[in-house]
Amino acid sequence: MPKYWMISNRNATASDLGKNRSDTLSFFTADSGNLKDFKNWQPCTAAAFRAALISAADSFPLIPETEHEKQKHVTVFVHGYNNDWRDAAARYQQITDDLYSGPKSLGICVLFTWPSNGATAHYLADREDARASGPALAKVFNTLFEHSLLMQQKAADGTALCKAKVSVIAHSMGNWVFQNALFYTWERNNKPLLVSLINQCVMVAADVDNDLFGNGEALSDNRSEGMANLCYRITALYSGRDSVLGVSAGLKHFGKRRLGRSGLDRSPAFLAPDNVWDFDCSALFPVKERDIHSAYFWTPKTQAVIRAILQGYDRNIIAG
Predict the structure, then answer these.
(1) pTM above 0.90?
(2) Which of 17, 143, 209, 268 could be joined to 85 by an S-S link, Cβ 3.0–4.6 Å?
(3) What residues make up the domain containing 110?
(4) How far apart are the first and last CA of the chain?
(5) pLDDT tens digits, one per residue of 24-42
(6) How many domains does the chain have?
(7) How far is CA 306 from CA 5, 12, 153, 160, 193, in A?
């Protein structure tokens, strides 16, 4: 079984992944080595990737419902802006090695890398690439949605049991990619209200408006509607110490505050769905930490929070 998995809508060559969007998705797996070295990735077809991923998930242990916190995950990690594919691969490898390896492994993590330009000066260009990458990521979620329905049907008639949960970790502007992707999945599948495609969604330092879920649970044309209805629970991790999102707010200069810097909108008119909550991580970072925007992924205390969220512990227990 491969240890590392990658899907991309970047333009792919025989020796690299580029900075431009592609109309087709590329699929890769790797067993070991430095993932920033493209030679360590083996390309494969969409069918082969899907078959291998299904087989790997089927090897997970069957966990009693009363111990659901121990159930394994298939997690999609969506990186942020200012990342070329090598930066994204390095961050993904660190997350996989820390949270998805060894006896306490959460399961399998899959990297979705979109064509961020890898430069701070290209913020607005990255934002457009992030929006335009939504349909590509939606193809991944559509496939997961179809497989989820199939497994639920088999579980209902007693021919199979589901061994894995689907979860998402989205970082920074990757949350804008994710938001757009679930909107397309939500629309394509006729706004299903009886299916939770994603068990846990962790929005890390999200570079999106903090009134994203302001419509509550009402049906609307808001692009966040798909997120609130296709996810069992959404957790936004934020910190007022995040200087990167302070710059982002200045560059955007319209709309609302950044969710990853200010948390959910606290105004009286804001009505978040019951399955959406936020958690201030400011006190969990070392005092001298300078890169708060990315430190969620290597700080032990925030790693523990991310693990507990994915395991499905109650929010009050996590906060405590």
Answers:
(1) yes
(2) 17
(3) 4-58+68-319
(4) 37
(5) 999 999 999 999 999 999 9
(6) 1
(7) 20, 32, 30, 30, 26
